[in-house]
Write a structure and sequence with these properties.
heterodimer, A: 132 residues, alpha+beta, Ubiquitin Conjugating Enzyme, 3-stranded antiparallel β-sheet, B: Herpes Virus-1, Four Helix Bundle (Hemerythrin (Met), subunit A), 50% helix, disordered N terminus
Chain lengths: 132, 524
């Protein structure tokens, strides 16, 4: 099963205005195993791998994934029309990167060394990802 | 290097003495009687292993799976009665504290509620599964979103002491997936996000199919063995035994090579789980060596191509058995397979084929030559190591060839089946010695150059030469009855000599660890 999910940036943050598309692939043994979540196209963010795969502990079966996460934390009733659901955890991650667990070097280094440039880049990305 | 053992009193160079005392009647007597060790020794000298325990040997026990289960149950029972908790809770607690019952009791009596909670159990005051109140209205399973009316709640849903209720179908699917697909057992948690309550054995028994429950138990046993530093599974295929050894903790592995033998008949290293003896080399050195050989795999691949070229006519030669004394089919050039030097230098004079002289051929000013020397040095030891490894692969063929020869001897020499067993025993000795020699080259590669290393290489050379001579004798063709008698005495003597050299090398090297005699040059 494959879901196409749009995650809006939280209002009032640099991510506001953008709609970030995530492909959620559900394995056969879901919900024992978590869905694989991948930004498509890949996202400029410290915890997103260059391939677009999201590095988040609740999405890792070895870490904090639990079958009950499905409904409560991950999804909510549709906001942006049918087929779109919000990944709360992922939405929260957008503005709160986990710096101890970087997944891509570009965003990580910019976040650490030059916050002004990083914020600018995020705002630019939000404009690029504005829903048409 | 001298051997100061008292048990090597057999005579291995006096070949005529036992030749005379060798006839059918005596032979038959000796097979049953071990009370005449002197005569018996002369027939198959020192092939039997010395029974006494050496300071570098460890004692061990081979356990069955049932014994492992009993060990766990005994611990569980003890904790159950001391802490007054149900058996499955005692098991969860013990697993949490890696079966260290002293630490568990200390923590538990210090603060029972915290100890229970940290292990993933309900504190004593909280409701249990049975006292957990059922929701009054209809219930939606948080995982699958299925609705259950109040009447079917007790039958179709389940909550542990933590109170997180899910439908039984979801529990079954979750637990089955955890056990079958992920191989988890002792630390499967509640399905609720953030809840670290452990699912206990009786819950699993209730929720999953019988075969999954069986697998759960197998995984628990595997985890118990893995968590216990004094237990190790026998690594040999289809072997179900577990080895228990209390004398080889990790901190001792710089002084001991704890080779043990499983009931399945195979040897293993208790220290690292290597599925054969790697004596006399320490576990960590073996690991380093194997990593190096894997890293240099390109070179190793090239090296392992089993062909070499004749030093005279450049014909490509593959060695597919036999000893190291090679004769080129084409030009009749006789040479040594190991060093490729002329064989004439080996038979009579100094056998120079086991050591690598670092000094020769290295121009200290030329860094290029230096790096080549270090590669050459590695290749030197690797070649010799791989050579013995390759020989070991031909063991089966070696036995087959020898068997054929034994038949031949029975037919043409009028010898009984028992009388020709010396040949098989000699092959046993050769194979054992070759494995030791193989590892001795790994050892020599990492040893610092000093006097002790020279002595080590002296022993190594003596054994190498003895094995080579014995291998040569075993390759001899049988011509007539007289030559059989001579060959038999030669082989028996040489086998005894090899065994003795083998024991000296092994004994000295292993004692050397205890005496901290060996200095390693471990490249960083």
């Amino acid at each position: 099963m494959l879901w196409e999910v749009g995650i809006p940036g939280k209002a009032g943050t640099n991510w506001d205005g953008g709609l970030y598309k995530v492909m959620m692939t559900f394995p056969d043994d879901f919900p024992t195993k978590p869905p694989k979540c991948k930004f498509d196209p890949p996202l400029f963010h410290p915890n997103v791998y260059p391939s677009g795969t999201i590095c988040l502990s609740i999405l890792d079966e070895e870490k904090n994934w639990k079958p009950s996460i499905t409904v409560k934390q991950l999804t909510r009733p549709p906001v942006y029309g049918v087929g779109f659901k919000i990944c709360l955890g992922v939405q929260d991650l957008l503005d709160h990167p986990n710096i101890s667990d970087p997944a891509q070097i570009d965003a990580y280094q910019m976040f650490k060394n030059d916050r002004t440039a990083y914020d600018k880049r995020i705002k630019q990305q939000a404009i690029e990802r504005r829903p048409k | 290097m001298s051997s100061d053992g008292d048990n090597d009193d057999f005579v291995y160079d006096d070949e005529y003495e036992y030749d005379d005392g060798f006839d059918q009647d005596e032979e038959a007597d000796e097979i049953d009687s071990t009370s005449e060790p002197d005569v018996y020794d002369a027939l198959s000298p020192a092939i039997e292993e010395a029974p006494q325990k050496k300071p570098y040997d460890v004692t061990w026990k081979v356990k069955t799976l049932q014994e492992i289960i009993d060990m766990q149950n005994k611990e569980i029972k003890k904790i159950q009665s001391v802490l007054e908790v149900p058996p499955s809770s005692a098991a969860v607690l013990l697993r949490h504290y890696a079966w260290n019952s002293e630490k568990l009791q200390e923590q538990f009596w210090n603060d029972p509620a915290t100890a229970l909670q940290e292990a993933g159990l309900s504190p004593p005051s909280s409701p249990t599964t049975s006292t957990q109140p059922l929701p009054s209205g209809p219930f939606e399973c948080p995982v699958c979103c299925m609705d259950y009316d109040a009447a079917s709640l007790e039958k179709n849903t389940y909550a542990m002491g933590c109170g997180h209720r899910f439908c039984k179908d979801c529990w079954t699917e979750y637990l089955t997936g955890k056990i079958k697909a992920e191989g988890e057992s002792g630390n499967i948690q509640c399905m609720e996000d953030g809840c670290s309550r452990i699912v206990r054995e009786e819950v699993i028994d209730e929720m999953v199919a019988a075969d999954v429950f069986k697998k759960y138990h197998n995984l628990l046993n595997a985890a118990f063995v893995a968590d216990s530093p004094n237990l190790r599974w026998c690594p040999h295929p289809d072997c179900q035994y577990i080895i228990e050894c209390n004398q080889a903790p990790t901190r001792m592995l710089d002084q001991l090579v704890p080779t043990v033998e499983c009931k399945c008949g195979n040897e293993l290293c208790f220290g690292c789980g290597h599925p054969a003896s790697h004596r006399p080399v320490l576990c960590r050195v073996v690991k380093m060596w194997e990593k190096k050989c894997a890293d240099d795999s390109e070179t190793a691949n090239w090296l392992q191509a089993n062909t070499k070229e004749c030093g005279k006519c450049n014909s490509t030669i593959e060695k597919n058995g036999g000893c190291n004394h090679m004769t080129c089919k084409k030009c009749k050039w006789e040479f040594c397979w190991v060093c490729m030097g002329p064989w004439s230098e080996h038979g009579t004079s100094w056998y120079q084929c086991n050591r690598f002289d670092e000094k020769s051929g290295v121009d200290a000013r030329d860094t290029q030559a230096k790096s080549r020397a270090s590669l050459d040095r590695y290749l030197h030891y690797f070649n010799r190591w791989a050579n013995h490894e390759h020989s070991a692969k031909l063991d089966a063929e070696f036995y087959k060839k020898t068997e054929k020869k034994m038949e031949q001897m029975q037919n043409s020499g009028n010898l009984s089946w028992i009388e020709v067993q010396f040949a098989k025993q000699a092959v046993d000795v050769v194979i054992k010695a070759r494995i030791t020699l193989k590892w001795s080259y790994c050892m020599a590669f990492y040893l610092k150059r000093n006097n002790m290393t020279e002595l080590f290489e002296d022993n190594q050379r003596d054994l190498e030469r003895a094995v080579e001579n014995l291998g040569y004798l075993l390759e001899q063709n049988i011509i007539d009855t007289d030559s059989i008698a001579k060959l038999r005495s030669d082989i028996t003597n040489q086998a005894a000599y090899v065994q003795k050299r083998h024991d000296i090398l092994m004994d000295d090297t292993l004692k050397g660890y205890l005496e901290r005699r060996w200095e390693f040059a471990i490249p960083t």
